[in-house]
């Protein structure tokens, strides 16, 4: 159906997008720093998001194989963990250059091909960390927050050419919550739907935004996080707060405390 390039095709979400695109009938070409063969694909190749020449060469190989490009999905990136005081300038800039600079290079390369064709769709994989703060994600959050602003700006430029650009912002996926049981429990507790996302659910959102049904959507960052970015407390967290209040408080007092707590956050 579409000629699709997926960057980061060897990763959890990128591979899910590749498989979903192939199932849709797309000619799908995967690019990755460490490419792997994907059954049913039109081919795979290597790309380094921090290298201009590598991005140009990767796109050239994909376009030559596909005969053009209708959809570009950027699922590549660098997950950097570290607090403000622990993160070095070099690590911060490396993360920004990979996640935000890489998005710039890919979008520019895609637009140069799509504009003469009369249109196309570009999707970047963002993160819940672009929407709400969390400790030990300083560089990563900055890179994804910058990506949101980049998408808003580019949408206004590429719209007249018939090119849409959007992002999906997943919360934790199956492999993204950390291996420790307490990490998984904390992540699920903050999520109203009480589970992690499947990579296939993220891929489904990507396919919608790149389909004809999503052609009037551009400049949007779509959370795929089970409601985590839209709520102050999950039901289980709020129940825990209720249990912490003294039994002697009446309903009126409890309500006043709740309002005060929300105001003081």
TrEMBL record:
Region annotation (Disordered) ranges: 238-265
Pfam families assigned: adh_short_C2
InterPro entries: NAD(P)-bd_dom_sf, Sc_DH/Rdtase_CS, SDR_fam
Single GO molecular function: oxidoreductase activity, acting on the CH-OH group of donors, NAD or NADP as acceptor
UniProt cross-references to PANTHER family, sorted A to Z: SHORT-CHAIN DEHYDROGENASES/REDUCTASES FAMILY MEMBER (PTHR42760)
Entry similarity comment: Belongs to the short-chain dehydrogenases/reductases (SDR) family.
Name of the protein this chain belongs to: Beta-ketoacyl-ACP reductase
Organism taxonomic ancestry: Bacteria, Pseudomonadati, Pseudomonadota, Alphaproteobacteria, Rhodobacterales
């Amino acid at each position: 159906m579409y000629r699709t390039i997926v960057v980061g095709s060897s990763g959890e979400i990128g591979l899910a997008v590749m498989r979903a695109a192939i199932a849709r009938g797309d000619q799908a070409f995967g690019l990755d720093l460490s490419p792997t063969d994907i059954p049913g694909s039109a081919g795979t190749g290597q790309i380094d998001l921090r290298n201009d020449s590598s991005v140009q060469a990767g796109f050239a190989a994909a376009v030559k194989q596909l005969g053009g490009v209708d959809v570009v999905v950027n699922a590549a990136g660098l997950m950097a963990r570290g607090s403000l005081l622990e993160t070095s300038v070099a690590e911060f800039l490396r993360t920004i250059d990979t996640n935000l600079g890489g998005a710039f290079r890919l979008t520019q390369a895609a637009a140069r091909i799509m504009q003469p064709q009369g249109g196309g769709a570009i999707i970047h994989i963002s993160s819940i960390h672009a929407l709400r703060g969390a400790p030990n994600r300083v560089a990563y959050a900055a890179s994804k927050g910058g990506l949101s602003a980049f998408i808003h700006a580019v949408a206004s430029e590429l719209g007249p050419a018939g090119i849409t650009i959007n992002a999906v912002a997943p919360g934790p996926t199956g492999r993204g919550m950390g291996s420790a049981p307490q990490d998984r429990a904390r992540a699920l507790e903050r999520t109203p739907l009480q589970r992690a996302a499947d990579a296939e659910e993220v891929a489904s959102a990507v396919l919608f935004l790149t389909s004809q049904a999503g052609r009037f959507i551009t400049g949007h960052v779509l959370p795929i996080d089970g409601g985590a970015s839209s709520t102050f407390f999950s039901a289980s967290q709020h129940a825990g707060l209720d249990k912490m209040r003294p039994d002697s408080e009446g309903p009126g007092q409890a309500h006043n405390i709740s309002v005060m707590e929300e105001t003081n956050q």
